[in-house]
Write a structure and sequence with these properties.
The complex is a heterodimer of chains A (114) and B (111). By secondary structure, chain A is mainly β. Chain A contains no helices and 11 strands. The radius of gyration of chain A is 13 Å and the shape is globular. Chain A starts with a strand and ends with a strand. Chain B is mainly beta. Classes of the chains: A mainly beta (114), B mainly beta (111).
């Protein structure tokens, strides 16, 4: 089955620094990937849709300048949390698929900003 | 009203019981229906994927879709403690990849 790899699984950073999270589709090409944020005991909240070779589409209320998304190839999308603050601490998850298959998810990245 | 409604639970049942999880939705354009299982601090794992109405079985899991009632279900037979997780329903319409999720139901199977 389709495999989506996300790295790192856990990162701790200091307030004001930036953190990059990678999402890779290992055995298929993904023209579109999705980035979610999940708070404890809540469902997934879509942050943005990452499109290969073009700008990401952000959901309402998501700061484009804080959450930079780059989809440089058909197998890699990155999410950079810039100038991170404690309120950015959360669980970030990516997903990928194609139009003929369901989305598969990475294992998530737990971000803690101190 | 949310597009997809799912009782968040928590739901606690004894080992071996049959578990029934449900979602209702309001958008009749949804065509693809999924159930994901999510363990704590892990990404969602695809369990079942169905198109339009009908039933689909995979081992101990059965997914049902009733488009006329805008109602989907996931049944787990012979439940095991390892089935303890949060179960998320998700759906999308034809030609779209973006998913709409339910809130997720927290399930605990007691040995």
């Amino acid at each position: 089955g389709a495999v989506v790899s996300q790295h790192p699984s856990w990162v701790i950073c200091k307030s004001g620094t930036s953190v990059k999270i990678e999402c890779r589709s290992l055995d298929f090409q993904a023209t579109t990937m999705f980035w979610y944020r999940q708070f404890p005991k809540q469902s997934l909240m879509l942050m943005a849709t990452s499109n290969e070779g073009s700008k990401a589409t952000y959901e309402q209320g998501v700061e484009k300048d804080k959450f930079l998304i780059n989809h440089a190839s058909l197998t890699l999308s990155t999410l950079t949390v810039t100038s991170a603050h404690p309120e950015d601490s959360s669980f970030y998850i990516c997903s990928a698929g194609d139009y003929n298959s369901p989305l598969h998810f990475g294992n998530g990245t737990r971000l803690t900003v101190t | 009203q949310k597009e997809v409604e799912q009782d968040p639970g928590p739901l606690s049942v004894p080992e071996g019981a049959i578990v029934s999880l449900n979602c209702t939705y309001s958008n009749s354009a949804f065509q693809y229906f999924m159930w994901y299982r999510q363990y704590s601090r892990k990404g969602p794992e695809l369990l079942m994927y169905t198109y339009s109405s009908g039933n689909k079985e995979d081992g101990r899991f059965t997914a049902q879709v009733d488009k006329s009632s805008k109602y989907i279900s996931l049944f787990i037979r012979d439940s095991q403690p390892s089935d303890s997780a949060t179960y998320l329903c998700a759906m999308r319409w034809q030609g779209a990849q973006k998913l709409v999720f339910g809130q997720g139901t927290r399930l605990t199977i007691n040995p």
